[in-house]
Design brief:
- This protein is of the alpha/beta class and 457 residues long.
- The chain folds into two domains: 239 residues, Aminopeptidase, CATH 3.40.630; 149 residues, 3-Layer(bba) Sandwich (Glucose Oxidase, domain 1).
- 29% of the residues lie in helices and 25% in strands.
- The chain is built from twelve helices and 17 strands.
- The strands form two sheets. The protein has a 15-stranded mixed β-sheet that branches.
- Strand 2 and strand 3 form a beta hairpin.
- The protein is elongated and about 80 Å long.
Length: 457
C-alpha cells in the first residue's frame, strides 16, 4: 500500500509541484511589518490589493471585475462615542454613561420615548417591534448570534436593539471590543445598545415598574470608506458560461494593540497570508497548464474578519452569475501542519464535490478524513456566504483534519501579533494542499468529470 501511494504521488506532473519556498516568499511580504496587518481601509491595504493583482497579471490571468481587477466594497467603521439616555417606567431614571455601550449606524441618533419590547432568542417567534426598541437577554451558548439577532430585529423595523448582559463584568469586554472599531457594510442600519441586567423584569424594577421607554441621544464615531475584492479570471474554452471559483480573504486585523505595546501589529501570516499565497501559486500553475473548459475565477475577499463582508458583497453583486458557479473552493488558515496530513473538507456531505476530493486525495497518496468534525467551521468562513446562495462550496485540505493542531493555533497566536512569518512556519502541508487545489480545480473545470449539479429551487 505504501509503495502504491508513493507511485500515485509521483505521478503528479512536475509542473504542478509547489515548493514551500514559493509560499514563503508571498507570506513573508504579506505578513511583513510594512503591510501593517492588512486592515481594510488603510494605506497598507492598498499595497495588499496591488500585490495580488500584480501577481495574477504576471501569471497571465485577466481582470475579472467590471472595469479591472477590483470590485468596490463600501464599508463603515464605527466606534462608541457617548450615550446620554434615560429609562422611564413609573419613574424616570438616568442611565450612567459607564453602564451602557451604544453603537449607532449614524453619527447622531435621537430616541424620543421609544417603547421597549421584550423578545426571545428564537427569530421565528418575534413580537411586533416596528418603531420600538427590541430588548433581548443574551443567553450564553444560544444558537442565534448577537449579530444575527440584531440584524433580524432591525430588518423587522426595530428602532434599536438593547442587549441585556446578565453576567457582571461582561459590559467592559463589550466596550473594549466595540471601541476597537466595528466594521459593517455601508448602509448598515439600526442602533445597538448593551447594558448589564439580569432580566427584563430587573430592568423594569429600576424604573419602578410599568411599561418602559427610552429617551436620549447616542453619538457614534462613523467613518465610511471603500475597500475592494480582487478578482482575476482564467477564461475557459467552453461556451456554457460556467465557472469554478477559488476564494481566499486577504484582510487581517491591522494595528491591533495600543500605542506603547511591544508589538502592535497583528500580521496574519497563517490567517490568511498563507491562503493568499496558496491561491497565487495555484493560479499561476493553472494558467500555465491546459486551458480549462470552464472559466476559473479567483476572488481575494476583503473584510472577512469583520463578518464575511467581502464575500457577502460579491454574492450580492457577482461578476459571474451565481447559478453558473458550479463549485467554489475557499482557502483559509492553511499553513497549520506538515506534509502527510489526511484530507478533510469543511461542508463535507453537503455537495457533489466529495467524490472528486476523495479521488484527488488518493491520487496524492493521502489518507481521507471522512468524519464531519470539520463541519463545525461551516459558518465561520467566506464559503458559507456562497453556500447560503446555493453555490456548492467546500474548504478542503489537511488543516481541518488535525483538529488538535488547529485548536492549538486558535488558542494561541490566532488573531494576535505572534501570527507572523518565521522560518519555523510549517508550510509543508500548505504546499501539498496547494497541489491538491490545482488537481481538484482542473477536475471541477472539466464538465466530463464534474457535471454541473442541479440547483435547489
Amino acid at each position: 500500500m505504501l509503495i502504491l501511494a508513493a507511485a500515485l504521488a509521483a505521478a503528479i506532473h512536475a509542473a504542478d509541484r509547489v515548493a514551500e519556498s514559493d509560499l514563503a516568499g508571498h507570506i513573508r511580504v504579506l505578513a511583513s511589518e510594512e503591510f501593517e496587518g492588512r486592515k481594510p481601509g488603510t494605506a497598507a491595504s492598498n499595497k495588499t490589493l496591488s500585490y495580488i493583482a500584480t501577481a495574477w497579471a504576471r501569471a497571465g490571468l485577466v481582470p475579472g471585475a467590471p472595469g479591472g481587477w477590483y470590485q468596490p466594497v463600501a464599508l463603515l467603521d464605527r466606534s462608541p462615542r457617548i450615550a446620554t439616555l434615560s429609562l422611564r417606567g413609573r419613574r424616570q431614571v438616568s442611565i450612567p454613561a459607564d453602564a451602557i455601550v451604544a453603537l449607532g449606524a449614524d453619527p447622531a441618533v435621537d430616541l424620543a420615548g421609544h417603547r421597549l419590547v421584550e423578545v426571545g432568542a428564537d427569530p421565528k417567534h418575534m413580537p411586533d417591534v416596528a418603531g420600538q426598541i427590541a430588548v433581548s437577554r443574551i443567553v450564553p451558548g444560544a444558537p442565534f448570534s448577537l449579530r444575527g439577532q440584531g440584524e433580524a430585529l432591525v430588518k423587522a423595523g426595530a428602532a434599536a436593539v438593547l442587549f441585556l448582559l446578565p453576567d457582571e463584568g461582561t459590559l467592559p469586554a463589550i466596550r473594549e471590543g466595540l471601541t476597537a472599531v466595528t466594521t459593517s457594510p455601508a448602509g448598515a442600519k439600526g442602533l445597538r445598545l448593551y447594558a448589564e441586567a439580569k432580566s427584563f423584569d430587573a430592568l423594569r424594577a429600576r424604573a419602578g415598574g410599568g411599561d418602559l421607554s427610552l429617551s436620549g441621544r447616542v453619538l457614534t464615531n462613523v467613518r465610511p470608506y471603500q475597500s475592494y475584492n480582487v478578482i482575476g479570471r482564467i477564461p475557459g474554452t467552453g461556451a456554457t458560461g460556467e465557472a469554478v471559483a477559488i476564494i481566499a480573504h486577504w484582510d487581517h486585523l491591522g494595528i491591533c494593540r495600543p500605542e506603547g505595546a511591544p508589538d502592535r501589529i497583528c500580521n496574519g501570516a497563517v490567517d490568511n497570508a498563507s491562503g493568499i499565497a496558496v491561491m497565487i501559486e495555484v493560479a499561476e500553475r493553472l494558467e500555465l497548464g491546459p486551458r480549462p473548459a470552464r472559466d476559473i475565477v479567483f476572488i481575494a475577499t476583503t473584510a472577512e474578519e469583520s463578518g464575511l463582508l467581502g464575500a457577502a458583497a460579491y454574492v450580492a453583486n457577482p461578476s459571474v452569475p451565481l447559478d453558473k458557479i458550479v463549485a467554489l473552493l475557499n482557502i483559509d488558515t492553511i499553513a497549520i501542519g506538515p506534509r502527510g496530513l489526511p484530507v478533510s473538507a469543511v461542508n463535507r456531505g453537503n455537495t457533489a464535490i466529495d467524490p472528486l476530493i476523495d479521488e484527488i486525495a488518493r491520487q496524492q497518496g493521502r489518507a481521507l478524513d471522512q468524519d464531519l468534525d470539520a463541519n463545525a467551521f461551516i459558518t465561520r468562513q467566506d464559503g458559507s456566504e456562497f453556500t447560503k446562495a446555493g453555490v456548492p462550496s467546500v474548504m478542503v485540505g489537511g488543516s481541518f483534519a488535525d483538529i488538535v493542531k488547529l485548536l492549538a493555533f486558535l488558542g494561541s497566536v490566532y488573531h494576535a501579533p505572534d501570527d507572523e512569518f518565521s522560518d519555523a512556519l510549517p508550510l509543508g502541508g500548505a504546499a501539498e494542499d496547494a497541489e491538491l487545489h490545482i488537481l481538484l480545480t482542473r477536475a471541477l473545470a472539466d464538465p466530463r468529470r464534474y457535471p454541473a449539479p442541479p440547483r435547489k429551487p
